[in-house]
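Lab notebook, bench 4. Still working through the backlog of constructs that have no structural model yet. Next entry is a single chain of 118 residues. Request: give me the structure tokens for it.
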Amino acid sequence: MSVYQEIDALRTMNISPIHYLVLPRIVAISVALPLLVLFSILVGWFGGGLVAVMNEKIAITFPAFFSNLRDVVKIGDLVNGLCKTFVFAVIIGTVSCHQGLVTIGGPRASVDRSPKRL
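Model written out:
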């Protein structure tokens, strides 16, 4: 947005670009990424159970699979993974927003800097 002076326009109107642009994006990715990981974990568990039921060599029932899964997977493992995901989400959001705020030139600048052909 700094390429087309939208950030300068926000500052002119006395609106903080950090509060208006950056914070909503960091909050959104901090909520969405752990939810996406939790959904992925649940889909993986369901898929594992489905494979265990459908594969004749394994021959285990769905309730037995989830009973064994409950014994193997501890709640601390799930919480640990979600906490790491939250930290990664904050890092991704912060780095992405920083790069967006310091970008200059835009697409036309990359064309202007291309080497001249003879």
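Notes after review: Residues 18 and 112 are 30 Å apart (CA to CA). The mean pLDDT is 87. Flag for follow-up if needed.
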